[in-house]
Amino acid sequence: MKLNRLFNDAKPIEIKEFMTDSRLQLKNSLFFCLKGMVHDGHKFITQAVNNGAVAVVYSDDIDFIDGVEYIKVDNVIFELNRTAAIFFHNPSSKLNMIGVTGTNGKSTIAKTIKELYSLWKPCGYSGTISIEYGVNKEKPDFTTDETVPTLKMLRRMLKANMEACALEVSSQGLDQHRVDALKFDVTIFTNLTHDHLDYHGNLENYYQAKKRLFSLIKPKGCAIINIDDPYGARLFNEINSRKYSYSIYEEADYQAKDIVLSPLTTKFTLIVQEKTYQLETNFVSEFNLSNLLAIIAALHQSGFSIDDIASHLHQLPQVDGRMEVIQEGQNFNVIVDYAHTPDGFEKIYQFAESITSPNNKIISVFGSAGKRDSKKRPILGSISDKYCQMIINFEYFLFIVLL
């Protein structure tokens, strides 16, 4: 593509690739001087040129190199997203895009939407667990990757004849404008609780980052919001897009009532548009039922009937490490979950308590590895002590064994 198709006043130089990492060798590329948390792209222009950049988009004062086209802009990240959408032929406009954000539940919702959607039409998935489209499965670098890798991924999905994509959208990805080149048909807000405060500083900043997703809705798109969550109720009142609520406690567009929990199944009454449906699912726990309401709403707003959706809820595929029930013939229950926030711990322990007889024990194996948000660790320990008869510290996953 010629550079003057991206910037009107630029020379008609042939651009074959976008570069945001000066270490990559990309011939005939357009380099964007992005400012990150640690590094500033303006300091790496020489390296970028040596590795194939023929044009540079910048905002600060720099030294020029002969033979290179320079384009000064006010906001480099804005121009990256604007031009990348053009350069990569706006792939999100050709897909039914379903974006999921929230502290907890993103992976369960997005992955299950992909599995159910694919029963009728081909759908891809990208998130913490994997990137999947058709027979292809890739390992992700981030929950929400940067602009160029994300657009390239969507192009691969289109080439593989996908018609939709369920995408996990992280708060950091939103704050860093990684999905600004995309537009969404359906956006989902699950909840917002204590997490990532080492990055955002406070819950208000965290909320404002999440809220950015709902400014990226297509003209005929919609928002699906959990109004049981205080921040969800606030968001529902603050946005002007077409919107639908879901709840297990309040009247909502998608509501669950008469909930009966057990170790292996959940029975409930679904109310949608004044119609009731008696349903049973292998999704266990109250908070996973909340996730299921978001899934049902997203599929329904994507054009699938409630009856068709309901016919597949009794045997949903388990999502790895997300309320994953382990059955190997043992006479006790084992659940593996990715819970890593105070709210996640509280809810999974409450479910464990609800299905455990008074004479039995709750044994928890958990950890909080890495350097991120270490202030939540004593909170996690305190919550575990509140519910469990035995605690074993380990890493990454939370294991609950009910004896």
Describe what you observe in this structure.
This protein has 403 residues and is an alpha/beta fold. The protein has 3 domains: 3-87, MurE/MurF, N-terminal domain (Udp-n-acetylmuramoylalanyl-d-glutamate--2,6- Diaminopimelate Ligase, Chain: A, domain 1); 91-315, 3-Layer(aba) Sandwich (UDP-N-acetylmuramoyl-L-alanine:D-glutamate ligase); 324-402, Alpha-Beta Complex (Protein-Tyrosine Phosphatase, Chain A), CATH 3.90.190.20. The chain has 12 helices and 20 strands. It has helices spanning 45-50, 76-87, 106-117, 147-159, 171-175, 197-200, 203-211, 230-238, 286-301, 306-310, 342-354, 377-387, and strands spanning 17-19, 29-32, 53-58, 69-72, 96-101, 123-126, 131-133, 136-138, 164-168, 184-189, 217-226, 243-247, 254-261, 266-272, 275-281, 324-326, 333-337, 362-366, 390-393, 398-402. The strands form 3 sheets. Strands 8-7-6-9-5-10-11-12-13-14-15 form an 11-stranded mixed β-sheet, sandwiched between helices. Helix 3 packs across helix 9 and helix 11 (342-354) runs parallel beside helix 12. The longest helix has 16 residues, at 286-301. The radius of gyration is 23 Å and the shape is globular. It starts with 16 loop residues before the first strand and ends with a strand.
List the keywords.
about 400 residues; alpha/beta; Udp-n-acetylmuramoylalanyl-d-glutamate--2,6- Diaminopimelate Ligase, Chain: A, domain 1; UDP-N-acetylmuramoyl-L-alanine:D-glutamate ligase; Protein-Tyrosine Phosphatase, Chain A; 3 domains; 11-stranded mixed beta sheet; 5-stranded mixed beta sheet; 12 helices; about 30% helix; globular
